[in-house]
Amino acid sequence: MSQQGYVAAPPYSQAQPGMGAYQGGFGSGPTQPLYGHYGGPPQAFSAPPAGMMKSSVAPAASMPLPAGSSQYNPNVQQNGSHPQSYPAPPAVSAPYGQPPHSLYNSMASPGPPPTQQLTNQMSSMNLGSHGKFSMCSFYFLVQGLQSPPPPASSVMPPGLQSPHMSPLMSPPQSPPESMPMASQSMAGTSMAGMGRPFPGPPPPGPGGFQQPGLGSAGQPGYPQQAGQFGGYMAGPQQNMPGAFPGAQSAMAGPPQKKLDPDSIPSITHVIEDDQVKQGGQVFTTNIRGQVPPLVTTDFTVTDQGNASPRFIRCTTYSLPCTADLAKQCQVPLAAIIKPFASLPKNETPLYVVNHGDTGPVRCNRCKAYMCPYMQFIDGGRRYQCGFCNCVNEVPVFYFQHLDHMGRRVDFYERPELSLGSYEFVATLDYCKNNKPPNPPAYIFMIDVSYNNIKSGLVKLICDELKTLLEKLPREEGMETSAIKVGFVTYNKVLHFYNVKSALAQPQMMVVSDTAEMFVPLLDGFLVNYQDSRAVIYNLLDQIPDMFADTAESETVFAPVIQAGVEAFKAAECSGKLFIFQSSMPTAEAPGKLKNRDDKKLVNTDKEKTLFQPQKGVYEQLSKDCVASGCCVDLFLFPSQYTDIATMADVPSHTGGSVYKYSNFQIETDGEHFLRDLRKDVQKSIGFDAIMRVRTSTGFRATDFFGGIYMNNTTDVEMAAVDCDNGVTVEFKHDDTLSEETGALMQCALLYTTIGGQRRLRIHNLSLNCSSQLSELYKSCETDSLINFFAKSAYRAILNQPLKNVREILVNQTAHMLACYRKNCASPSAASQLILPDAMKVFPVYMNSLMKTAPLVGSTELSTDDRAHQRLSVMAMGVEDTQLLLYPRLIPLHNIDVNSEKPATPVRCSEERLTDSGIFLLENGQSMFLWLGQASSPDLIQSLFNLPSLAHLQGHMCALPELDNPLSRKVRSIISGLLEKRSNSMKLQIVRQKDKPEMLFRQFLVEDKGLHGGASYMDFLCYVHREIRQLLT
Ligand SMILES: [Zn+2]
């Protein structure tokens, strides 16, 4: 039987020579080659969307300008040439020879013999299933084989530890005195003249590395390897079942020592250390390729020429110079862009540049927008584009003299010359039909079928809207919101409401022909809330009563979205639908769904169908929505399976969100839902957006992941994009990159503001390039890597068996680390596990990712929950994926109630719990208060006003407001978290050993998975083995 295998050689198509044992042969499922973009195979560049060019009439809006900005409105006639329509193909497109490949491309390559062996081992490991994975344990020693291991604590007392090094991270050969070697690596050697404050690259040149190649190792004396640690593997522990076959020989080993979980790299330490080192500091973006503080660290950003890490984060800030190097290390090259990220109050909002009817200055060839990477020459009359190198004439209105440094004298007065992020007012060329857009509209569409009425949900929504609509987002400086509002109720038919301000009573119009949806009224449907407040109040009061006696339990869904699209089309505006739906649409209408949940498919090759949306109606609907700038947010209140994979299809392609409240009950879920609704309605957001990522020559964006829609291979379309939406962009080489010029990217987002203005938001970022892989590894950002892996794996499960996807994740983890070991680490005993400092906690995250509901094949998990999580993650930014994959576990029993400092989280493992402890756990989606069975009655009294745990009853979802320091402190921690996270979380209170505790335990991600999957320790052992296999 010929076996087709998946090569864990993601971005790049071939395994490197010498690592042949790694190639092919993993897994045995049928291959599903290439999963393309949604909507079909990538197409050649297509014409810009109709109606985005021509004619220019002055947009008169004046924007807030920076101080001393009198020169910002040059408003001088442009010299002839019209700005071209938005998105145009970059001129640079050296043939890379291949269509964009992505992570899970298949490759039918016969694996060399060793592969088979690995395959067998893999299958006996069965990573995804429960209890078969323990096979080894680590015995970490501080020193290498040659010298005996002093106890870690005596080698490096806590006070001496570098913030980034745990004792076992010290280099194997260093004597204790040289421990500050940590600082050696952390202070970094600077790139000539760059003064990097972060772990820096080594000086290039003779002292550096050999060209990474077969068998090459770092040269002696090379001062890095902060993150390596020695570890001997011993044979399987007796109490660990399922010993790994063949593990013994590989783990021949040294003295049997008790396993110390503290000796393996800890995310909580990494987070804490970075907070200590960089917390509260200013991160200035004036240095190319500068690695920002962790996403969890509290810092302030000053924009000095590169976009803030809040807007763009990268998997590495030093790209390998060649495709070969990239292929060799298999570290994905990607950026996670959050174009609308919220900025803290102490950071400057984006400046808006208005060039009047001439529009922004752009490179004639590649259409990149004016930015700090344009080099002015010839006395300021011309400029060379940093992206395509084309030399352009400076438009007459834009001319300015250069100073003695060759810099324009207005450098600091123009955001587009000196900042990483800013906005341009778009001219009519950038507007649909060359007309300025109308302000967007929000339509509230409430399912009034029996379930929603009975649960009290309809009344809850109507009551809330009265106050919430007062808080619609508004343009800065405006007194009221320009957003229009409209209302629809529905079950099997749709009811539209005329709420024109002149009416004394709202009027209802019913459309029962759901096959041919239309909007029965234009005037009076979408109104200004302030003008129509009285009529709207009246309507919101009446709706719950109107349907109080309904017996209708069937609903439609697709026609509801269609109605919204038609309404926006008729009003010539973009906007958002807020749909509150109780069940799967089973009424006879387009988009009718039936129950196709089938647990028998779990762990089979057909499992992927559970994640695939039903084709047809919803696919077309997504297209229509994106074309008319209609974003869909779905609030679901299901009591059973609702086929979320299909129902969430439109939201997930329109930049919308899906919220799910299973078995909704007002008492326990009402407040939770309202918090979500309030956040959602008030979010900062842009509409009818189209994004293009341009790059300098040598590499380009090849793949995109997010709540997006792609009509071609380059334009990322989003009906809306809000402050939480993150788009992950993968890059590939098409040529050699230069160490000298580095690599540049520019993300341009054309969108409509909430006030109805068309704008371009520009984010620029410059990265380093290096022919040394060590540079890449040093500049990696694990949190970004994991975001990329989560999204690419979650997309891959649409087309491949989960088992294959998990294997690819493991193999790539091993490969990336093996490549570091081989090319960047100094020689050391094979038994040592050596990790790059910047990636030392990468394995924890990868292991956690593989244990998430979508990736774990378990019949105990609800299909809807899995589909829901899959889709939510696709649109997440780095902060959200980090938190999701490594929850915060905060001890509360010993908290200092007087301290302002946030409580320090501990590792997510059962070992950290104590019977007498009380812990809070949250991951951005769920929140638990865990009460140890021996918690002190005093604590219980303070928190619950109850004499003991035994008195705690019922489903409590909030702590009582008690007037004592502990209660106040804990409640303030909880409310602080709810405030900070993008979603609301329902507080679930669980007692140790009670049944619901299982829900909590699945978030202890360092432990063995509840539904399968290895513990962190076991996973690390396994990865170590894989690495050793790869290196022999
Ligand atoms: Zn250019």
TrEMBL record:
| Gene Ontology, cellular component aspect | COPII vesicle coat; cytosol; endoplasmic reticulum exit site; endoplasmic reticulum membrane
Question: What one GO molecular function would you report for this record?
Answer: zinc ion binding
Which ranges carry the Sec23/Sec24 beta-sandwich domain? 686-770
Q: Where is this protein localized, as stated in its record?
A: Cytoplasm, Cytosol; Cytoplasmic vesicle, COPII-coated vesicle membrane; Endoplasmic reticulum membrane
Cite the entry's keywords alphabetically.
Cytoplasmic vesicle, Protein transport, Transport
Tagged with keyword Protein transport: yes
Know the name of this protein?
SEC24 homolog D, COPII coat complex component
Organism of origin is Astatotilapia calliptera (Eastern happy)
